[in-house]
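seq as requested:
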Amino acid sequence: MHALQYEITLPADYDMGVIRDRVARRGHLLDDWDGLGLKAYLVRERGLRGSPVNAYAPFYLWNTVEGMNAFLWGGGFQGVADDFGRPSVRQWTGLAYAEGEGGQPGFAVRQRQPVPARGLLADAVEDAAAGAGRLTAREGAVLAAVAVDTSRWEVVTFSLWDRAPAGAEGDVFEVLHLSAPGRDRIRRGRRW
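C-alpha cells:
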C-alpha cells in the first residue's frame, strides 16, 4: 500500500462549486483504475469545520506502484497539472489499514505527526499502526490507513467517516466522491 496526496490551496474567495462540478464530471474516471485501492476526492472550505483555507486535496491508497506510476506519468495526473499547475505530491509508505462499520463516507480526517525522535523506531510505528484499529472501532468510521514518510519522519493517519467525527484531531475534509476499484484488495492489518 502506498499513500499519495496533493493539496491545492485556492483563493479565499474561490467558488468551490467549480471543484464540486469538476469532481461530478470527472470523478468516475478512476472508478476502475488498475492498481488503485481508493481515491477520496476531498475538499476543505474556509470557515467550515475549522478550515482556514479553501483546498482541493485528493487522497489515494495504491495497491501497486505500477498503478500509481501509470496515474502520475501515464495521463491521469496530467489533467490536474493542466488545470492547477504542478502541485507537490506527497507520498508515504503504508504501515497499516483497517476497515470500520461505517456507511457511505462523507468526511475524511488527515492527521500528521512526527515519528518520536527518541525510542525504538519499531515501537513508534507499531503504536501508529495500531491506531488504525483504534479509529475503526469508533462509531461512524469507514476505514483508516496509516503510512510514514521517512524523508520527513512523519506519520500520516487518514480516515474516512460516514459523519463528521466529533473531536477529530487533524484536518477535516468533505468527501465529494470515492473511487475504490481495489479497496477490497487492500491488505488489512500492519504491513511488516
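The CA atoms of residues 29 and 179 lie 8 Å apart.
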